[in-house]
Design goal:
heterodimer; A: alpha/beta; Alpha-Beta Plaits; 4-stranded antiparallel sheet
Chain lengths: 317, 260
């Protein structure tokens, strides 16, 4: 696959929004969202259904006007320079649609005609890239949902885009299809240096696929950062298994660095002021004659963090 | 400039591809045009064969005139409406309109490419019907008079005008409404029922000069069937151009404003 095109004169974020807001009458669909999507990353945009993900994507693509705030795509302000920006962007909004009576290749011919003459030469290449070369001459009405999603990505790649915006690309896919899509997105980022912005409500898939993510809830971005940073909020939480949990709990209760100590299913769970204090805790227990059989920092999944954050907000509301 | 021309040519080609590859639809459109011609001609051939004294040959000038009416006023426009509606709203129905808009290509360019594609398909289909009609006109003329070459050419131009205008109107209305069934129902109802009734209503007087059917019958070459309105050619041309411009303009406006 050809590397992304040479006209990458923009070094800033692939996508940037500042206070982007969309109001539908009284309802605030997107509330002052400020995002910065680094180039060359897979960026997950997480949120429940109806959280405002698609509305934000539609504003970024100039399909709907923002009520307030600004956005730039590949350094170009949208909607002011939408056409130039979109020439370097591939996007699937909601779900990829095709003419069912045409073959996959013919659908790409139609798309290439709209994109420009140079894209036509890339049809075979992109079909191969998404693994549809053997089914390219079958009518799209015979394609599975996963194949349609891949054909949608192929259509995005026709213009050799620097940035791909994929709205819920895993929706409706079976586990095999999800794995294919995940691998494809990773390859687009790692092998071809593209930026892929993936909106999804499938937290596990975003955690496995993306480098960076933002979490949107009821129109507001409530967290953003690398996946490690997002899940690292659980850092300092420790689980210890030992031969005498009750005695160990008594010993550690007096430790000033230990918080939220409890015994669960025969194991000790606690939160430390700093993760590096785990070694001191181990030494304290061993020194007191407690045999430690397991000491493990707790790693939260993105799903747990997401639910924790959104539940917290619900409670606050 | 040459890149723009290439893009325009490719976009028209793409619209043409999506129309002609819809095989069931193409078969229907061809059937709409050819089936009445074949049935009518076959009936006349059988009639003439069974009783030549009472029934004349199936071809000749009279057949030519009726064939023009069939292709230019009745079944031809029905086919043109079907093609125009498909060309105008096919991408909306398939959900591809948004993907086309996402390319950054201007919506006007997306709209304009449909018209030549729809016209090309319409002319091809009507051309097949006309070729069949001419074969009967000359092949089954017996001793009857046949149209001259100039009348044949005038007939071709008139058919192109009559069906072309209807096709362009259908593209415009389909873009305006975003609905193929709605466009087909409205325009076929107009073309086959309402408009012929209004043309026949002498109480409407010169107001009928504003009806596309009336104008097209006025411009029709060859033998005349039915009532023909009287008007200046300039009026006929102006009315035709107005019909061909208003609905496409509304369709183009809707394409610009439609939510993708």
């Amino acid at each position: 696959m050809q590397a992304i095109h040479a006209n990458q004169h923009h070094d800033g974020p692939a996508l940037e929004t500042d206070g982007l807001t969309k109001r539908f009458g009284e309802r605030l669909a997107v509330d002052a969202v400020s995002l910065s999507v680094p180039r060359g990353t897979a960026y997950g945009f997480l949120g429940h259904n109806g959280a405002g993900k698609t509305t934000l994507i539609r504003m970024l693509l100039g399909l709907t006007r923002a009520s307030a705030g600004s956005a730039s795509v590949l350094g170009l302000p949208v909607p002011a320079r939408r056409a130039q920006a979109l020439a370097r962007v591939g996007a699937i909004v909601e779900e990829p649609s095709f003419y069912p009576h045409l073959t996959g290749r013919e659908n790409l011919k139609v798309a290439a005609a709209v994109r420009g003459p140079e894209t036509r030469a890339r049809i075979d290449q992109v079909l191969h890239r998404v693994g549809l070369d053997k089914r390219a001459d079958d009518r799209v009405r015979t394609y599975s949902l996963g194949m349609r999603q891949r054909l949608g990505v192929a259509r995005c790649l026709l213009s050799d885009p620097e940035l791909l915006l994929l709205d819920e690309p895993m929706n409706g896919l079976d586990p095999g299809g999800m794995l294919d899509m995940r691998r494809m997105i990773r390859a687009l980022v790692e092998e071809e240096g593209r930026t892929v912005f993936v909106s999804s409500h499938l937290l596990d898939e975003v955690e496995k696929t993306c480098d960076v993510a933002a979490i949107i809830d009821r129109g507001r971005v409530i967290a953003q950062g690398s996946i490690d940073e997002l899940v690292a909020d659980g850092a300092g939480e420790l689980v210890i298994e030992c031969d005498d949990a009750t005695r160990a709990a008594e010993l550690l209760a007096a430790e000033s660095t230990v918080r939220e100590l409890r015994v669960e299913h025969g194991a000790l769970r606690m939160r430390l002021l700093a993760p590096e204090q785990a070694g001191e805790i181990n030494a304290r227990l061993v020194g007191a004659g407690v045999a430690v059989t397991r000491l493990e920092p707790v790693r939260h999944s993105l799903e747990e963090r997401f639910l924790e954050m959104t539940t917290r907000l619900e409670v606050a509301a | 400039m040459s890149r723009d021309l290439t893009v325009t040519r490719q976009m028209i080609g793409a619209d043409l591809l999506r129309l002609r590859k819809k095989r069931g639809f193409m078969a229907l459109v061809l059937a709409v045009v050819l089936a009445p011609l074949v049935i009518w001609t076959g009936y006349q051939v059988i009639e003439h064969a069974s009783n030549p004294a009472a029934y004349g040959p199936a071809g000749g000038l009279d057949h030519f005139g009726k064939m023009l009416s069939l292709l230019g006023v009745f079944m031809g426009p029905v086919a043109a409406v079907l093609i125009g509606a498909e060309a105008g709203a096919g991408d909306l129905a398939a959900g591809v309109f948004r993907d086309n808009v996402l390319t950054g290509r201007s919506r006007m360019a997306l709209f304009l490419s449909r018209i030549p594609a729809a016209l090309a398909v319409t002319f091809a289909v009507i051309g097949i019907g006309y070729a069949f009609g001419l074969a009967v006109t000359f092949g089954f003329a017996g001793g009857l008079a046949t149209p001259s070459l100039s009348v044949v050419l005038e007939g071709a131009l008139w058919l192109a005008l009559a069906n072309g205008v209807v096709c362009v109107i259908a593209v415009g209305l389909a873009c305006l409404t975003g609905s193929r069934p709605g466009t087909i129902t409205a325009l076929i109802g107009w073309e086959l029922i309402l408009s012929p009734m209004l043309v026949q209503s002498s109480s409407l007087g010169s107001a009928r000069n504003g009806l596309l059917d009336g104008v097209l019958l006025f411009l029709k070459p060859g033998p005349v069937q039915g009532p023909v309105l009287t008007m200046a050619v300039a009026v006929a041309v102006a009315v035709t151009m107005l019909w061909a411009a208003v609905l496409p303009a509304l369709g183009a406006w809707r394409m610009q404003t439609r939510d993708a």
